[in-house]
Amino acid sequence: MCAKTTDINNKPLHISYESLLQGNKDWVQETLQADPDYFNKLSAGQKPPILWIGCSDSRVPANQITNTNPGDIFVHRNIANVVVHTDMNMLSVLDYAVNVLEVEHVIVCGHYGCGGVEAAMGNKQFGIIDNWLRNIKDTYRLHYHELDLISDHKKRAEKLVELNVIEGVFNLSKTSIVQNRWKNGKKLGLHGWAYSLETGLIKDLNVTCENNSHMSAVFKIADIDKV
Ligand code: CO
């Protein structure tokens, strides 16, 4: 059901403003042919079980790489899938997903070859984005003893992609949104994944977190009435 990106000779089609609108019409037609009731059902409401926090990179669309459909995944994307406590956009998405949609899983999915992570490893100025990417430099500082031992640049960047995801999962677990959900006895799993642009495969980084037992005391949030 994906829009065609190549012609019959396998040459890339030019993507333009107009071609997107035509692509939409084609998609609606194909979708209705397969299921005339598709949009009636989808417009009735959403109950996705998953929140996805991923990179804005055009090559990592949550639905396509997980073989899922509209309605399956609630999505938040930013450059280099950074999870920062002061990001009202991310916190609003997280709060709505956890407390209104009641998702049972939050996945932070990074990807190897991430330009944002690569930029954060260097010293070049890129403008406003440097402020955002500095969060990844902080992650580098936290793990420099491990990262500096990796002499191969590509491998070091891949490790930082993974550590950026792991810090993201940890940062999610520190939020009052997540900890209050756990306190209320609700199931909520936080997961860290890394996607390979080269193979199309996702690696589970095995950092799944379902309670705050692992957390240092300073991050644990008490019940509101006990504060
Ligand atoms: Co990226």
Summarize the structure in short.
Helices cover 42% and strands 14% of the residues. The chain has helices at residues 17-34, 38-42, 62-65, 88-100, 115-121, 129-142, 144-147, 153-174, 176-183, and strands spanning 50-55, 73-78, 105-112, 189-196, 202-204. β1, α3 and β2 form a beta-alpha-beta unit.
Radius of gyration: 20 Å
Briefly note the CATH topology name of the largest domain. Answer: Beta-carbonic Anhydrase, Chain A
Spell out the CATH superfamily of the largest domain: Carbonic anhydrase
> How many structural domains are formed by the residues?
2
> Ligands bound here?
cobalt (II) ion
Portion of residues within helices = 40-55%
Q: What's the helix-strand series? A: HHEHEHEHHHHHEE
Give the overall silhouette. Answer: globular
Strand order within the widest sheet? 2-1-3-4-5
Q: Report the sheet-strand fraction.
A: 5-15%
CATH class of the largest domain: Alpha Beta
Structural class: alpha/beta
- As residue ranges, the low-confidence spans are none
